[in-house]
Amino acid sequence: MSRITPLTGFPEWLPRERLVEQQILDVLRETFELHGFSSIETRAVEPVDFLLRKGEIDKEVYGVRRIQADESDADQMALHFDMTVPFSRYVLENAGKLEFPFRRYQIQKAWRGERPQFGRFREFLQADADIIGRGELPTHFDAEVVLLIADIFSRLDIGSFVIRVNNRKVAEGFYRGLGIADTAGVLRAIDKIDKIGDRVREQLPDEVGDEQADKIMALAKIRTSDLSFGERVRALGVEHPLLDEGLAELEAVMQTAIAAAPQGVVLADLSIARGLDYYTGTVYETNLEGFESLGSVCSGGRYDELASDGKNTYPGVGVSVGVSRVMAVLLRDGIADVTRGVPTCVLLAVGDEAQRAESNALASSLRSRGISVEVSPSAAKFGKQIKYADRRQIPFVWFTQDDGTHQVKDIRSGDQVDADPATWMPPEADLRPRLSHPHKENS
Amino acid sequence: MSRITPLTGFPEWLPRERLVEQQILDVLRETFELHGFSSIETRAVEPVDFLLRKGEIDKEVYGVRRIQADESDADQMALHFDMTVPFSRYVLENAGKLEFPFRRYQIQKAWRGERPQFGRFREFLQADADIIGRGELPTHFDAEVVLLIADIFSRLDIGSFVIRVNNRKVAEGFYRGLGIADTAGVLRAIDKIDKIGDRVREQLPDEVGDEQADKIMALAKIRTSDLSFGERVRALGVEHPLLDEGLAELEAVMQTAIAAAPQGVVLADLSIARGLDYYTGTVYETNLEGFESLGSVCSGGRYDELASDGKNTYPGVGVSVGVSRVMAVLLRDGIADVTRGVPTCVLLAVGDEAQRAESNALASSLRSRGISVEVSPSAAKFGKQIKYADRRQIPFVWFTQDDGTHQVKDIRSGDQVDADPATWMPPEADLRPRLSHPHKENS
């Protein structure tokens, strides 16, 4: 039996860890739905040439083909590496059947053959939400997405977070106003400022002179939690119509965000570039405080031209939560846990095997009232059955006496009380496993 | 923009169809958890030689390799074609960290390059539940699985169903008792009896004589909803220790199932073979009444030797619900629908754009009380905003008057009433979209 080894970059959780992930996913789903987003799923594969048409040639894409396939149809398909490209295809394919603006969320695995490292996987779970319009999509949706991100991380309750907002037009207009030709080259350098700091200056294109570089670096260092970023940009003395447009959009987004989001979580950060080509306006990154080195755990932005069918273009704005990345840090640092490791609330003890049919009936009755029940795997001595429950962290053990009466033991406290099968309920906090926050509870 | 066409065999649902699927998945998850099963997920890929080692050579497996990979590492991985093989690997890999008997469920996509047809896809969603023991696993778990299946289809409430149970040892022992060498060949033929009926007789191996064939066909035709199958088998006059063992197990399973499952849903059906090699005892198939041609929508069985690490063997028993297959028939025949096509319950009308910030605050407050809210995409005339809600099937439109008072309109009835943002709730039935049964409601 060879090959029973983990594959690097393809994480799998133990049942208890998966319970944490399930709670996280439940919060994401609930938040998306409270904000009016509909769930969809797209197939795992796309035609290779469709996946690669948006300048993604350097992505480590996984090709898919039947092992028994002819040589001729090799590598026509590939696993998607994000949800945005498949979603744009879904919108074009179903445009006639969707209502616009269309709000959708999508929680699925994606695959990239990158070199695995902490928080970066080859198979990873993303949770995306986008609003897509037909023809036009007002900028107030860009602000709505900030409120969505704020609501997600407030509800997840996994620590402090900062949402950093920028607008591609600001940098693009600023660089053009400086007379720079290779604005993409400048953006690529600035994109690394979180990682290498001031050394990005050395990576600016050759055409950039000292004075220009000073202004580029000054722009990238502007971070404000209020609307003062506008003044500070204008004080740099660069002018361009696209810069004005970008600043007006960023001001509108920040104004709404500051008014509606919890205080201090939203920051205008003029260094945010986002690597992907398709963003055309607002861009977002979200950092968990204390885990900045992990990078952004929720990123996205506005794309005006991702999807087009010749007749219509479909501008959109959205974000993607890096669920696997969040899970990596939650589990490593014990930030989130669950109140117990199994769904089971009650173990029905079995006195002897002849009693099992009766226990099955009782289990069925308790389940019909929403209580998760397991019938004991064996009619071992009661002490052994209690130990079984204890090992699995099942909080209650149920005993049916010979006279037909019932008792329930809370094996944490040892308390054992009479119980009526028709009415007994566990305390609300014990009904299902819940997310817990070990650090908070200790402090 | 070429290639914006569906891929045959890779289904994608529209948002309303996906809502139906979500409700189905919620029921599956809830039922599994009520029965004490823990969720896990395994990675989408396995090493090719691991996937193929269990006699699955004729499966149309999809190989996966990085497009930029060297020739040397081509096709080392493949997409899993079921959940059983990856689960057996997961158990071996994590055996030291799991409690046995280990109860897990797993709801994931799987991939097979079969020729697509109605209800058979190349990418499909399966929902598996298995109980796996270390060293041993008593037969009463085989009965528990029948109760799980019955509970699933009762809760799904998508029509009448029949769970057909058999035991591999019965057929194997019976054929051996008849002196047949190629028992696997007989089983392969009998496996087709649902599709081609009595013509399976012609497909029996050459060694089978007329008298043997008579008995084989007689065995395969025994179907009873009580325990009388035992007498009827014994009346055929064939004897073998394995036959006795199989009948005893099947009787025990049927006895428990008849006692605890709703009346008439469980059938001992001695024709059930199940194609896969790894089943060694009890086998299950489940049919939706009226959709027998669709084949089984929930199948499984007992496997004594699927996983082994040299020191221990891990016998298991479980089932797999073919979610995509169920969805195919539900959607085609309009058996299940949802009460509305979007999660949104309330659209906040916007009088003019200056009011949007206020609407965002109101939306946030309603969401904090569990109500799904969308702020109107534009400050168009109210009639147009109501039409927007109507097209998206959002049941309520909320108006904030100039004097600061609020009204809510139920756009289905036209009723418009005063509402207090701090306390207003929709009727319970309107809070979230729910599964509906158009046929039932019409009858």
CATH topology of the largest domain in chain A: BirA Bifunctional Protein, domain 2
Report the CATH C-level class of the largest domain in chain A: Alpha Beta
Question: Biggest interface and its residues per chain?
Answer: A-B, 98 and 98 residues
Largest sheet of chain A: 9 strands, mixed
Assigned CATH architecture of the largest domain in chain A: 2-Layer Sandwich
What is the count of distinct domains of chain A? 2
Structural class of chain A: alpha+beta
- The CATH superfamily of the largest domain in chain A bears the name Bira Bifunctional Protein, Domain 2
Q: What is the rounded Rg of chain A?
A: 27 Å
Question: What is the helix content of chain A?
Answer: 25-40%
Shape of chain A: elongated
Number of strands of chain A: 19
Q: How many H/I helical runs of chain A? A: 15
Specify the oligomeric state. homodimer
Unreliable stretches covering 5 or more consecutive residues of chain A: none
Give the amount of beta strand of chain A, in percent: 15-25%
Output the strand order for the largest sheet of chain A.
1-5-6-12-11-10-7-9-8
GO molecular function, one term (chains A, B): histidine-tRNA ligase activity
Binding site for L-histidine (chains A, B): 82-84, 112, 126, 130, 274, 278-279
Domain Aminoacyl-transfer RNA synthetases class-II family profile (chains A, B): 20-343
Subunit structure (chains A, B): Homodimer.
Write the layout of secondary structure elements.
2 copies of one chain form a homodimer.
Chain A: H1 15-34, E1 38-39, E2 45-47, H2 48-51, E3 62-66, E4 77-79, H3 84-94, E5 102-111, E6 123-132, H4 140-156, E7 161-167, H5 168-177, H6 183-190, H7 193-196, H8 210-220, E8 223-224, H9 229-234, H10 241-260, E9 266-269, E10 282-288, E11 298-308, E12 313-322, H11 323-332, E13 337-338, E14 346-348, H12 356-368, E15 373-375, H13 382-392, E16 396-400, E17 406-410, E18 416-418, H14 428-431, E19 435-436, H15 438-442
Parallel strand pairs in A: 1-5, 7-9, 14-15, 14-16
Antiparallel strand pairs in A: 2-4, 3-4, 5-6, 6-12, 7-10, 8-9, 10-11, 11-12, 13-19, 16-17, 17-18
Helix pairs in contact in A: 1-4, 4-10, 5-6, 5-10
